[in-house]
Amino acid sequence: MPQTVSHSYENEVTSERVRRHGKELWDHARARGATINCPEARILRSFSLAEVAEILSVSGSYLRQLSIDGLGPPPELGTAGRRSYTLRQINELRSYLASARPTEALKFSPRRRDGEKLQIISVGYGPAGTTTALYLAQGLALQGFRVLAIDLDARGSLSKMFGYFSRFHPPLYNGSMYAAMRYDDDRASMRDVIQPTHFDGLDLVPGTIELGLFEEESSQRYHGEGLRYPDPSMRMVSAIEEVEGDYDVVVIGGAPVGGFLGASAFEAATGVLVTVRPQLTDIVSTAMFLHILSHDVSLIEKSGRSVNYDFTKFLVTRHDPRDVPEQEAAALLRDSLGDDLLNASVWESNAIGKAWLQERSLYELSAGAVGRSAYEQAMETLNSTNAEVMDLICEVWGRPPIYVSQTSRSTTAGKTKSRLRRLSK
User: Fold this and answer.
1) Is residue 32 one of the residues assigned to a domain?
2) In this structure, are 175 and 55 located in the same domain?
3) Is beta strand 119-124 parallel, antiparallel or unpaired with respect to 271-276?
4) Where does the sequence pass through the membrane (predicted)?
5) What CATH number does residue 91 fall under?
6) C-alpha span between 387 and 379 (Å, rounded)
7) Residue 91 DSSP SS3
């Protein structure tokens, strides 16, 4: 028998019916125990004494003696007395060392000081853009920066890497950047949409399908009310200003090309990092993206607001240095971009791919999980890239560069140089 339609629903229009179905599904999911406002429970692994020594740029024997003397946070003791530290303990070590060795305080505690402005880095359109945003945000947190990652991808690609939107943890309603930028009375505080992650010092604004609503609503206002194009983009600027004092660096990932949401990301940014694969088709795509970015920025400038990035840098990613055409394409990029192309590049890596399939980063895994050789090679290129970006931040803040030199002194950096020499022969 055909199902009887309730009398109360007979006169509802299509939008009302769709809205009702959405609410019913939402309520039923919650009634059955779906957790709406927290990620999959994750605990970041502890780091060995050797790893902590490399992260802090001190010797392992020095850290071991601190532990013996009862100075700094007590490490975890494993088999055969092996010492390890959680990221929270590493940050406690940073505070102790900054106090005990004040001449090196900036090295151990890089958080911005009075007068140093918040750095907002938008990772622009390009291959491995989400991966780059992930490793940059986590790498900064491992080095002691207070970081906010903002996911502007409606599919939540970056958010999934932090345990959000798993099978038992669906997207949070009104919990993306859209909630802090929307135009109606349901607009939320920026603090209400920020979620914690399993990395101490790193928070996240998840990306959800709701982000598409911002594009629609902004377009309606632009065409229907005659508002100027940059009006929507200022909403992200205002939202981030609410929490400016809580962070040192904001990393924006997943910004769509063109449109109001993309323009918002580049209006808010103080620096832009564009990823490009050294292949001609990808280089052409990058050129097209730069044309769109130029258009968006010009509209903002025409409204009377200047756009002065502290840096616009390009990163070669997914690079196979053994491939001759890619070597030629990389040389083309260097000729065209000069010093705006980072010296480091991220190599094509099975280790990064394997970690991604597990919705983890290499920082979360041990070398054995993906193969030690592949792990070390990938980490070398990732850490070298992050070091360059961190030195850019130091330059903006008027500090001397330290991170590239630290990386070049490490054993793993020496291995990278050795490999590069072999490949060039």
Assistant:
1) no
2) no
3) parallel
4) none
5) 1.10.1660.10
6) 12
7) helix
Q: Which distant-in-sequence residues (6+ apart) come within 8 Å of 113 by Cβ?
A: 397
Q: What is the pLDDT of residue 422?
A: 41
The pLDDT value recorded for residue 32 is 64
Phi-psi domain of 196 (left: phi exceeds 0; alpha: psi -120 through 50; beta: other): beta
| CB within 8 Å of 141: residues ≥ 6 apart | 87, 147, 199, 200, 201, 202
In eight-state DSSP terms, residue 201 is T
Q: Name the residue with higher pLDDT: 163 or 387.
A: 387
Q: Which residue's structure tokens are 């280089």?
A: 283
Q: Smallest Cα–Cα separation from 77: which of 91, 69, 67, 87? A: 67
Distance, in Å, from the CA atom of 425 to the CA atom of 417, rounded to the nearest integer, reads: 13
Same domain, 216 and 71: no
Do 178 and 82 reside in the same domain of the chain? no
Interior/surface letters 13-31, b for 16+ CB within 10 angstroms, e for the rest: eeeeeeeeeeeeeeeeeee
pLDDT at 408: 74
Task: Say if residue 101 is in the same domain as residue 128.
Answer: no
Mean pLDDT in residue range 254-279? 91
Q: Has residue 418 got a pLDDT over 50?
A: no
Q: Tell me whether residue 7 is in a domain.
A: no
Nearest-angstrom CA–CA distance, 203 and 148: 5
pTM over 0.85: yes
Spatial separation of the C-alpha atoms in residues 160 and 253, rounded to whole Å: 13
CA-to-CA dists, residue 69 to 57, 64, 89, 304, angstroms:
20, 9, 16, 60
Query: How many whole angstroms separate alpha carbon 164 and alpha carbon 206?
Result: 8
Q: Which residues are within 8 A (CB) of 264 and not within 5 positions of it... i.e. 6 or more apart?
A: 181, 232, 233, 235, 236, 237, 255
What is the distance between the alpha carbons of residues 185 and 244, in angstroms, rounded to a whole number? Answer: 23
CATH of residue 133's domain is 3.40.50.300
SS3 assignment, position 384? helix
* Token pair listed for 77: 């003791």
* 193 within 8 A of 176, measured Cβ to Cβ: yes
Distance CA 109, CA 420 (A): 32
- Domain housing 52: 47-107
Q: Are 221 and 227 in contact (CB under 8 A)?
A: yes
- 143 and 89 in a single domain? The answer is no
